[in-house]
UniProtKB/TrEMBL annotation:
Residues 25-344 form the Enoyl-CoA hydratase/isomerase domain. It holds the Pfam family ECH_2. This is 3-hydroxyisobutyryl-CoA hydrolase. It catalyses: 3-hydroxy-2-methylpropanoyl-CoA + H2O = 3-hydroxy-2-methylpropanoate + CoA + H(+). NCBIfam families: PRK05617.1 (NF004127). It comes from Streptomyces spororaveus. Its EC number is 3.1.2.4. It is an enzyme of class 3 (hydrolase). Keywords: Hydrolase. InterPro entries: ClpP/crotonase-like_dom_sf (IPR029045), ECH_dom (IPR045004), HIBYL-CoA-H (IPR032259). GO terms for molecular function: hydrolase activity.
Length: 365
């Protein structure tokens, strides 16, 4: 895989630390200076480790955590995607292919997969955690799929997860990119348990010696109150509209300050990304298992590589940081059905083509 300098392989190894203690295997994302953002070598190393532990009788559970104080994982390496998209490369498509396969493996993993979702958990960070068996958030957790702000669409199975959220909460989070704290992540089904952050090191250590169930009983607490439960009425009404334009209109006419703020947030996002995201969320309910959702997301992601908004969005938010993207088209009214449908076009021989356990897996819809 590695064609760079001799030291590159060692650095790739250092970016994902693997160890076993007792009957538990531990994965530590170790790029704290980049908020543990995922690279393709990191994804492949995690996937290879999970494949090996799956058949290792000495490993009863897997724990994934992030190094540093800021969070589990901020997502994929956005700058690398930016450079690839600018030059018309294929590296991003290869990265997503491996990443989405890893997401599917995690979702079907036959042993308890415990994700410590402390701090920032965004984009690809959601993909390596929220598909797990046991998903733990803390008072510091900020779980988000902020892709529309960079001209992209929620991926890594994010459309699947958000479509499962009660009412239209997932639509709200997907379109606005708003972060969910612990209580909101629990309500939306993105996490299972709350544990205070100061207790996570002890919890992780205890998992080496006792079962996941036993350990959780000792540490799980009640999450501090969130915002979404009290906002359900206006969120469900406004986001049930058929189009993004209608959603914005309902938000503005609601008379609710939080709804008007959401409308302003949508006004800053990529119009194309908003429309494709809404279409993806609505279509994913008809697709069945996660693998079909990932295949749809792969089509969308590959199409986004040739869309001007992805490069422009990353430029404005990450590279130049002027926070003033020039979207093309610049308004919702100028994004037509053909523009949206392009993102769902079949890829032929390049399809993701995931296998799945559909016959043994209960489809949630």
């Amino acid at each position: 895989m590695n064609h760079g300098n001799p030291g590159d392989h060692d650095r790739d190894q250092d970016h994902v630390l693997l160890r076993t203690e007792g009957h538990t295997a531990y994965i530590t994302l170790n790029r704290p200076q980049a908020l543990n953002a995922l690279t393709r070598p990191m994804v492949l190393r995690i996937d290879e480790a999970l494949a090996g532990w799956q058949h290792d009788p000495a490993v009863a559970a897997v724990v994934v955590e992030g190094a540093g104080e800021r969070g589990l994982c901020a997502g994929g390496d956005i700058r690398a995607i930016y450079e690839d998209a600018r030059t018309g490369g294929t590296a991003s498509a290869a990265f997503w292919r491996d990443e989405y396969r890893l997401n599917a493996r995690i979702a079907r993993y036959p042993k308890p997969y415990v994700a410590l979702m402390d701090g920032i958990v965004m984009g690809g960070g959601v993909g390596i955690s929220a598909h797990g068996t046991v998903r733990i958030v803390t008072e510091r957790s900020r779980v988000a799929m902020p892709e529309t702000g960079i001209g992209f669409v929620p991926d890594v199975g994010g459309t699947y997860l958000l479509a499962l959220a009660p009412g239209e909460l997932g639509t709200h989070l997907a379109l606005t990119g708003a972060p969910a704290g612990a209580a909101d992540a629990l309500i939306c089904g993105l996490a299972d348990h709350f544990v205070p952050s100061e207790l996570l090191p002890r919890l992780a250590a205890d998992l080496a010696r006792a079962s996941v169930h036993e350990v959780l009983e000792r540490y799980v607490g009640t999450a501090p109150g969130g915002a979404l439960a009290g906002d359900r009425e206006w969120i469900d009404h406004c986001y049930a509209a058929d189009t993004v334009e209608d959603i914005v209109e309902r938000l503005l006419r609601s008379g609710v300050p939080a709804a008007e703020k959401a409308a302003a947030t949508l006004g800053a996002k990529s119009p194309t990304a908003l429309k494709v995201t809404l279409a993806a969320l609505r279509r994913v309910r008809e697709l069945g298992p996660l693998e079909r959702a990932l295949e749809q997301e792969y089509r969308i992601s590959c199409a986004a590589l040739s869309s001007p908004d992805l490069v422009e969005g990353i430029r404005a938010q990450v590279v130049d940081k002027d926070r003033s993207p020039r979207w093309s088209p610049p308004s919702l009214a100028e994004v037509g059905p053909v523009d949206v449908e392009r993102f769902f076009a079949p890829l032929g021989a390049r399809e993701l083509g995931l296998t799945h356990a559909e016959s043994t897996q209960e489809v949630p819809w």
